[in-house]
From TrEMBL:
UniProt EC number: 3.2.1.-
UniProt keyword annotations, A-Z: Glycosidase, Hydrolase
Annotated protein name in UniProt: Glycoside hydrolase family 27 protein
Domain of life the protein comes from: Bacteria
Length: 387
């Protein structure tokens, strides 16, 4: 096996065209994103997949029933795009759908699963996002994801399978068995605080359903978009504050979601880059054991609403990643008693805390730690047990 890392071992990291560009995608854009991955440190930080979402094909298959890339958007064809991305040491992703059509009305892969998988392999793709629109009602989504999974696993190429059924139809109960490497657990994200907050809260009770080879995908990141989508649905105006983007990235990192950038990284500012490339947060997200995070309510528990909580992720080396999240609209003190981590006073250990955003040591604490966190903000620490 040598250095071979199996597909889906860790949450995928990459970029996806949908949030910002929706239908307005073309070859040159994808090349520029690939260039930027290399020149601006994204590749170095761990981002790997460049994914073209919906709207890449013609509206009809060819006479042989094959999908055809839109020649106006991709004049050189998909193989050339794949070759370019591969020449940069990156991986290439595309999009299709379980139904007769994609969500934007392009041909879907229903009853063409094995044919399309073969075509994707020919083009040299490494990742397939598989959506849930226009699904014939007489057949279960579970079976259709199993079909494409089997087709991809037998197409002669390693292709990471990214299921996207928005958490519908009890997906938690069957997706791991289907063979998918990641699965969308939520409806579409929008570039505003309410959306980020509600997606995160919706998955707090679902952390037992994420882990290696089948990661809970909370949707693409909106970090750095600032209302820059071309779609009103996703949020053409508004956007979030940098604090909110930082909290969003922290939640997705700790909760083990794949990290798929959704902004136009050709126009990123230094803060966007700092957020998306924070090495400590990425290390937490990419931790080998890929455990879900558990939630602790701050003390005194009766005092706090459900949007104020700590998330704790047990890391492979024995450290704990701890996020203090204040999603409420006013400042809060979040008191963490270490016994809630399984660390009673009598054990004789203290915690040495490193602030992952400020990149500084906070000191050594025994029994409890109670930071004050501003509205919509968070503190993420890496905690080490010390005597
Ligand atoms: C669905 C998905 C989105 C995106 C669009 C494309 O809404 O959830 O992520 O892929 O379809 O049409």
């Amino acid at each position: 096996m040598g250095n071979y890392e199996p597909l889906g071992l860790k949450p995928a990291m990459g970029w996806n065209s949908w949030n910002t560009f929706t239908w307005d995608i073309h070859e040159q854009l994808i090349r520029e994103v690939a260039d930027r991955f290399v020149s601006e440190g994204y590749k170095e930080a761990g981002y790997e997949y460049i994914v073209i979402d919906d709207c890449w094909s013609l509206k009809e298959r060819d006479a042989g029933g094959n999908l055809v890339a839109d020649p106006a958007k991709f004049p050189g064809g998909m193989k050339a795009v794949a070759d370019y991305i591969h020449s940069k040491g990156l991986k290439f992703g595309m999009y299709s759908c379980v139904g007769t059509h994609t969500c934007a009305g392009y041909p879907g892969s229903f009853e063409h699963e094995f044919q399309d998988a073969a075509r994707f392999a020919e083009w040299g793709i490494d990742f397939l996002k598989y959506d849930y629109c226009f699904k014939p009602r007489h057949i279960s989504g579970e079976l259709l994801y199993k079909r494409m999974s089997l087709a991809l696993k037998n197409c002669g190429r390693d292709i990471l399978f990214s299921a996207c059924n928005w958490g519908e139809d009890g997906v938690y109960n069957w997706i791991r068995e289907s063979g998918a490497h990641m699965y969308r657990s939520t409806g579409d994200i929008r570039d505003n605080w309410e959306s980020v907050k509600s997606l995160a809260l919706s998955q707090l009770g679902k952390q037992c359903y994420t882990g290696s080879f089948c990661h809970n995908d909370m949707d693409m990141l909106v970090v750095g978009m600032y209302g820059g989508s071309n779609s009103d649905f996703i949020g053409r105006i508004g956007g979030c504050s940098d604090t909110q983007y930082k909290t969003h990235f922290s939640l997705w990192s700790l909760m083990g979601s794949p990290l798929m950038i959704g902004c136009d990284i050709r126009k990123d500012n230094p803060i966007t880059k700092q957020i998306l490339q924070n090495p400590h947060l990425i290390a937490i997200n990419q931790d080998l054991e890929a455990r879900g995070a558990y939630r602790i309510k701050p003390e005194p528990q009766w005092f706090h609403t459900d949007d104020v909580f700590m998330l704790v992720k047990v890391l492979t080396d024995g450290d704990l990643a701890i996020g203090f999240f204040n999603l409420s609209d006013s400042q809060r003190e979040l008191s963490l008693q270490f016994w809630d981590l399984g660390l009673p006073y009598a054990a004789g250990f203290s915690l040495s805390l490193f602030d992952c955003w400020a990149e500084q040591e906070l000191g050594v604490f025994r029994e409890r730690y109670a930071p004050v966190v501003a509205a919509h903000d968070c503190l993420v620490v890496r905690a080490k047990l010390v005597r």
